[in-house]
Amino acid sequence: MMIDLDKLCEVKDRFHEINKIISDPKTASDPTQMADLGPEHRELSEVVVAIERYEATLSEIEEMQTLISTELDDELVALAREELVNLNSKLPKLEETLKRALIPKDPADSRDAIMEIRAGTGGNEAALFAADLYRLYERYIARKGWKLTPINSSVGSVGGYKEVVFGISGTNVFGSLKYENGVHRVQRVPQTESSGRLHTSAASVAVLPEASDIEIEIATNELKVDVYRSSGPGGQSVNTTDSAVRITHIPSGLVVTCQDEKSQHKNKDKAMRVLRSRLYEKKMSEINAQRDEVRRQAVGSGDRSVKIRTYNYPQDRVTDHRLEGNLKNYPLRKIIEGELDELLNALQTADYADRMANA
Known about the structure:
Mean pLDDT: 85
Helix content: 40-55%
Strand content: 15-25%
Low-confidence stretches: 233-239, 294-305
Order of helices and strands: HHHHEHEEHEEEEEHHEEEHH
Strand order of the largest sheet: 2-3-1-5-4-9-10-11
Radius of gyration: 26 Å
Largest sheet: 8 strands, mixed
């Protein structure tokens, strides 16, 4: 990827244009326009900082070269040569930083997220593994200082989860966790296995950027809302009132349920959060066909053969199949305890490298 100096001018012009627009009091009072321009302004401000550092260094290099070719004082020339070496040594890193900044970011990266974990192939063991993944993310979220909000869950017959859905709020949540999208596979001897045979099970993880009311408008006549009594494991009633909520979005056919709260109103609010996020994701997928394909591959059917990561208990190892060489294997115990930063950073770096190569 070569740096196009004309492109840098276009970026700076667009940044100054947005600055002018959002400084207008009329724009500041329009939440829809601010929601549209805010993310672009934040992203371009980081790019402009990188551009200015890069251009300032190029300008200094040109000044030193001019001084060396015109100055008669040998001592000044020697100092200029020394400074030129120093500036040239900084240039590659500044170029790399600028190239990375110029790669268009996913506008959803800074958003909060909805995470959905579903047991896949493997029966009861898959449900237990889904619960292990939930605890893994609980620990990671706590380490990051984010907030986890339970939304809905369905327990397995011997424990674990057939499905668990929760919200995550904090800084750059979706940008950090979007690499968890996909099928996670576990290889271990289940506690219920008397013969000690190794089993392979799977669970799928979907991470959705959370949408706002402004971006996704849902008319009340597009919804069918059903209420029913919440139930616990094995169908056992845990509530004597009809507090559980099922919302069907008629135009899309999407169905969301929530029974985590005792209040029908709170369950409806949480279900609407999930529905809004799913509709936002659907909208973005229609705009970007490539992302739609990634989403379908990520969620899949929970089949063991379509996997992004394997948790191998006998070998105490986690292998991420999207990475190569010594970056693909990590100590299982660290990952299970929620120490995901090293792995997620490697995935982000690989993603950036791929996008830079194709930019």
